[in-house]
Amino acid sequence: MRGNSPLDGLGKGFVLLVVGAVLVAVGLSMGGRWPGFMHWRFDRSGDGFSFERGWERSWGSADDAEEADISRVEIIEGVLPSGLEKIDVSLAAGSLVIRSGDSSAWRALDFPSDGIRTDSDDDSFSFEERDWKGRFSSRQGFRMPKLEITLGPEIRLQDVHLELGAGNVELSDLETLRFSLENGAGSVAGRNITAGSAALETAAGSVVLTAASFDSARIETGAGRLQFEGSLGDRSSVSTGMGSVGMKLSGGADRYFIRFERGLGSVSIDGKSWNGAGNGTAGDSSAPATVNLKTGLGSIRIDF
């Protein structure tokens, strides 16, 4: 039988110490604070021992620190210019809502005021979430910061660029000349989006667009999922690595000429499927709209 060496115990203890240090570092990086050491007080005056739990903090109580943390969270809002043409939003973990309304305005909820940057002039508005770590509160859990943008009827957009991390996004009644969406691991739902040109990218998240209309589009997915329902104009491209793309195109099959290039993935067009490596086409080459498809290990399905 093999005995236990003292060195084995020291080795295990060292490993546990390293793991603990890593966990503490992760906690501090997510906005945690060192609460001080906990000790047990006891009182011998009486028939027995009575224990009292206490905390020692050189800078105040836990409640004071929590209240100070909460006080840094603000509701920030403003009015958008009537000549607004460009919107540029970059979010790390926050959520986004863009919708139509009677007047043009924006409002940021639950973002730490020192973790965002906003800029607005006569024809543009930009919003950047620079720090997401402060949104964790030990008392309330994770806050869910959200940016709301309301567009009035006077707005005529030329350029909308959205760069998203892991939040939820809702888009509705959005019309612009150029539309760009970069989605990391978030969830995007859009309805009634119209653009002259569109560039859609999702890494590991999901994008679902309904009642959409793009004159031309470039759609790319990594390991994410994209669902599109609407119309495409004269020339568009769709590619996927390990993800899935599903499209329901309006206008009928006669409107589209489709070229496809497959790796080890699959392509399905109007009920007909192709699997494995290969190239092919579907539809009439003289059709008004051309769509180029490319798959790696993923799948693309097109219905009409």
Explain this structure to me?
It is a single chain. By secondary structure, this protein is mainly beta. It has one domain: 3 Solenoid (Pectate Lyase C-like). It is 11% helix and 56% strand. The chain contains two helices and 23 strands. The strands form three sheets. The protein has a 19-stranded mixed sheet that branches. The protein has a two-stranded antiparallel ribbon with strand order 1-2. Strand 19 and strand 20 form a beta hairpin.
Keywords:
2 helices, 23 strands, two-stranded antiparallel ribbon, Pectate Lyase C-like, 19-stranded mixed beta sheet, mainly beta
Total domain count: 1
Main β-sheet: number of strands, strand sense, barrel status? 19 strands, mixed
> How many β-strand runs?
23
Give the H and E element order: HEEHEEEEEEEEEEEEEEEEEEEEE
Low-confidence stretches: 28-62, 65-71, 136-140
Residue share in helix: 10-25%
Give the DSSP E fraction (strand runs of 2 or more residues): over 45%
Q: Please identify the top-level CATH class.
A: Mainly Beta
Q: In one word, what is the shape?
A: globular
